[in-house]
Automatic annotation (TrEMBL):
A Pfam family this chain is assigned to: HATPase_c
Alphabetical list of PROSITE patterns matching this protein: HIS_KIN, PAS
Reactions listed under catalytic activity: ATP + protein L-histidine = ADP + protein N-phospho-L-histidine
Native organism taxonomy: Archaea, Methanobacteriati, Methanobacteriota, Stenosarchaea group, Halobacteria
Residue ranges of every copy of the PAS domain listed in the record: 35-89
Domain Histidine kinase: 173-375
Protein name (Swiss-Prot/TrEMBL): histidine kinase
A GO CC term assigned to this protein in UniProt: membrane
GO molecular function terms noted in the UniProt entry: ATP binding; protein histidine kinase activity
Its EC number(s): 2.7.13.3
Organism field: Halorubrum yunnanense
Length: 375
């Protein structure tokens, strides 16, 4: 009898332990569901939909919102290769070029990537990809061997692409027409300048100079359009030769200017070749708007934080309204600059993860470019 009673106690203990485990599992499931809902809410707020793909490039998950955007239900996509959403072979090759670095442990962001809807039309998306690691491996022990797939977070970029395409066309047409018309004005103003004398010749010169300024404006607008979507793509570059070429060109175009340079023989910064455009805009602006004659000083220093390039002139300074535009990076009907040179410098420097600062005083203006240190 005692043996039966002991067995009964053991069996009751087993039941109690099993019930405890069942309750713990149920509580854990509720907690995971709450976390998943929070996660889905964040994803829905930040992205249009989410995919997961395995190492073979097949969909293992698609969020429900994919149906509204691409016309496929999640069930239709799961198990299918990514090529089912890609409009042509070139896009398939591009997709794998972007996917492979993620399987090497990198994160990736691709803009304006085309996807084909179930109905046929192509839409454009911004896609952020991150690796998915095997859950059983602790985060601090993970290697690329533990990557089992990729998560792709997708946002609709079609309307932005259409809007930017329209803006680009308008800009090209306006620049083309402006160059043609200003060329005619400059030509006739030059003829009048040579034939007239006194106050009339001065007026012709004013017309010609104003037309030249507008032509410079169209050229700056073109360069802004070229650089506006550039990603950093930074790498260590010795900018000393770049600076030397820029200063040599300045001395050729502005022989009346006094140009001094104080810089180390080697100056390595994390940057890009397009920095040369920004440097030219800065020194050219200093020579054009400096004193009479212009005095341009270029100082380059290397600090623990990076590289600092300071260009000083002896001119009257940058108009306050121009500085307001640069500080706010927004133009309004009441706040706008007459030129785009400073905008171009700002755009390039910030695209290089750098900083731009302008200071004006009684003795002239200093434009300072700060570039990040080499990694």
């Amino acid at each position: 009898m005692l043996g039966d009673a002991g067995a009964q106690v053991v069996r009751l203990s087993d039941v109690t332990q099993t019930e405890r485990q069942r309750r713990q599992l149920a509580e854990r499931e509720i907690e995971l569901n709450e976390q998943n809902e929070l996660y889905r809410g964040v994803i829905d707020a930040s992205f249009g939909f989410v995919f997961r793909i395995d190492e073979q490039g097949r969909f293992t998950f698609a969020s429900p919102s994919v149906a509204e955007f691409l016309g496929y239900s999640p069930a239709e996509l799961e198990g299918e290769p990514v090529s089912v959403l890609l409009p042509n072979e070139a896009t398939v090759e591009r997709a794998w070029d972007e996917i492979e670095p993620i399987f090497d442990g990198e994160r990736n962001l691709v803009q304006d990537f085309p996807l084909e809807t179930k109905a046929g039309p192509t839409v454009f998306t911004d896609v952020r990809g991150v690796p998915i690691y095997r859950g059983s491996v602790p985060a601090d022990e993970r290697t690329t061997d533990d990557i089992v797939g990729i998560q792709l977070m997708v946002r609709d970029a079609t309307k932005r692409r259409e809007r930017e395409g329209l803006i680009s066309v308008i800009n090209r047409v306006l620049r083309h027409n402006m160059r043609n018309k200003m060329g005619i004005i400059t030509g006739y103003a030059g003829i009048l300048e040579g034939r007239l004398s006194g106050e009339d010749a001065e007026k012709a010169t004013k017309i010609k100079d104003t037309a030249d300024q507008l032509l410079d404006l169209t050229e700056s607008a073109q360069r802004l359009d070229e650089y506006r979507e550039l990603s950093p793509e930074l790498e260590p570059i010795d900018i000393a030769p770049m600076l030397e070429d820029t200063v040599s060109e300045l001395r050729m175009q502005f022989p009346e200017a006094s140009v001094t340079v104080d810089a180390p023989d080697t100056v390595v910064a994390d940057t890009h070749e397009r920095l040369k455009t920004a440097l030219w805009e800065v020194v050219e602006n200093a020579a054009k708007h400096g004193g009479d004659p212009p005095d341009v000083e270029v100082d380059v220093t290397v600090t623990e934080a990076g590289v600092v390039i300071a260009v000083r002139d002896n001119g009257p300074g940058i108009p306050e309204i121009e500085q307001d535009v640069l500080q706010s990076t927004v133009e309004t009907p009441l706040v706008h600059g007459e030129g785009l040179g400073l905008w171009l410098i700002h755009w390039i420097v910030t695209s290089l993860n750098g900083e731009l600062e302008t200071t004006a005083g009684d003795e002239g203006t200093t434009v300072t470019i700060r570039l990040p240190k080499t990694s």
